[in-house]
Amino acid sequence: MIDIQNIGTGEASETLDDFLQPISQHADIDSFDWVKFSMAPGITSPVRGDAVPPGVIPSLPTNIIPEPCANPPWPMDNQNFGYPLESTLQISRPVTTESILHIINLFLDRLHASMPFFERSYLVDNIYAQRPLYDQSFNALVHAISALTVFQMMQKSHKETRSSVHIEKAEWLLAEAVRLHSHADFGENPVLEHVLTSVFLFGCQFSKGNHHATRFRLREAITLAETMGLDDPQTYENISRDEKNRRLRTFLCLTVIHRVYAIQRDSPINDYLLTSSRLHIVRTTLNQLSTNFGQPDEKVIAGLGYMVDLIDFVDSTFVKCWRNQCWNEATPTHISAKTVSTLLQRYTEPMSTRESPNDAQRADVLVTRHWICHILWDLGSRHGFLQAENAVVQMRPDYALTIAHDSIETCESLDMTSLECHGVGLVSISSYTP
């Protein structure tokens, strides 16, 4: 096993596997959530990897079957990914393939169900096929996924398993992802791996609490998705089934992330990309792909569909009203009482989640549903829509008690492992206000 030297220290080197072992031992299965990250204070970025190495190989479109590079522009080592490292990183050799696979397996076990951008085999098969050796965009994606996984492992582990050295190694993975993610004409002809890498970089910055960088990476991902036409059903023609599946998954996941983040962090929302009509047209296409219903990955898609249904009403008008920004306009445009009433009644109807792949995703859907109800009721209250004698019970002031009761009842029906995946998200149900 090739060692990774301690960055900027004089301590003896240890392998990434040595570093990950105590973290994975203290990590709970299914204890992570894609939208509602828990943040560790005091994480800094001591490592920089801005320089682009000479002779990098540009990314291949994912619908082209790649072939191994016969004459790579740098020395190859069968034990690593084969890209050069900048001397400023003070690391002699890159992470081993075995170490990367270890992290990827942690991701698949603990994070993949809540961010199903692709099938599990997509990562493992391409890594075993050594795609990172000749596809820079895929290499960047692998490092971004690894960085997010390690940050989340550290934040969910006991404090004694963390150290400045461990944080620096996580930062190294992040710096490598950023370095590999960039080239001179980046954004001109994006491939899906570019979109996905931006999303995982968004996750890394969110977990670090860097919200300016978080917003930048989310905007970057959305811009790349627009350039690729992920919201246009016509762009899904004449591509392989696997590529179509990954594009549709990515579009739906990005839609959920974008809308939830817009509510949580006052982020601008792109109405054109996320209009309900376009969203449901693309989702219908996705459903037509699900020929192996009952398989784990197809059940994940069903759970993702529930999340899309929960947030499909969020647009710029809703976000402005939620942030109390609608009152500042010369001609205020408010969400209507009828819309709030209709949505609250919609979320009161019984909801079946039998198709969810596991209890963690079922908890994700149900808890988010209560969170949305709280937001809608609070929005109606601040706009003067609630009345004690209203014929619609959801539009009465005391309906807040029903929301609280239902939230507690739902939480009591779920095991602790399922609830832990939400972290601070549970607090948002009762305390998150603009």
UniProtKB/TrEMBL annotation:
Stated name of the protein: Transcription factor domain-containing protein
UniProt xrefs under PANTHER family: GLUCOSE TRANSPORT TRANSCRIPTION REGULATOR RGT1-RELATED-RELATED, ZN(II)2CYS6 TRANSCRIPTION FACTOR (EUROFUNG)
InterPro entries reported for this sequence: Carb_Metab_Trans_Reg
Nucleus recorded as keyword: yes
Alphabetically ordered keywords of this record: Nucleus
Domain of life: Eukaryota
